[in-house]
Design a protein that fits this description.
By secondary structure, the chain is mainly α. It has two domains: 45 residues; 41 residues, Arc Repressor Mutant, subunit A, CATH 1.10.10. The protein is built from five helices and no strands. The protein is elongated.
Length: 118
């Protein structure tokens, strides 16, 4: 899984959460503390903005794919595999499941990764 926040941001969050006052935080690589804090603040603002953008996109996508980005249940996973085995195309499966074709492909890969190899 890809990390959402930079290591700088996570390290600072750990220090502050453990009770270290911001005034006591020093960088070990010569960077100016205020510049580092500014960069982290910008990173957080961008993360927040991208989250809002993604939520908006998900809302739009759900207008045509009612289950897009929703969690998968075991019965849904079985249905996907049954449709695939029965010869339905990815597009047909996506339409039947109310999901995007990429979501169907991704789920099939995840199911296959969990299956024991012989």
């Amino acid at each position: 899984m890809a990390r959402i926040l930079s290591e700088d941001c996570l390290s600072l969050a750990r220090l502050i959460a453990s009770g270290v006052p911001c005034s006591d935080i020093e960088t070990d690589d010569g960077r100016d503390r205020d510049e580092l804090l500014k960069a982290i603040a910008i990173e957080l603002l961008l993360l927040d903005a991208s989250h809002e953008e993604k939520s908006y996109v998900q809302t739009d996508i759900r207008k045509t794919h009612r289950n897009a980005y929703k969690s998968w249940s075991e019965p849904e996973e079985r249905r996907v595999m049954n449709y695939l085995i029965a010869g339905h195309s990815i597009a047909e499966i996506a339409e039947r499941m109310g999901r995007q074709p990429g979501g169907i492909i991704s789920r099939i890969r995840k199911i296959r990764e969990r299956e024991p190899r012989e």
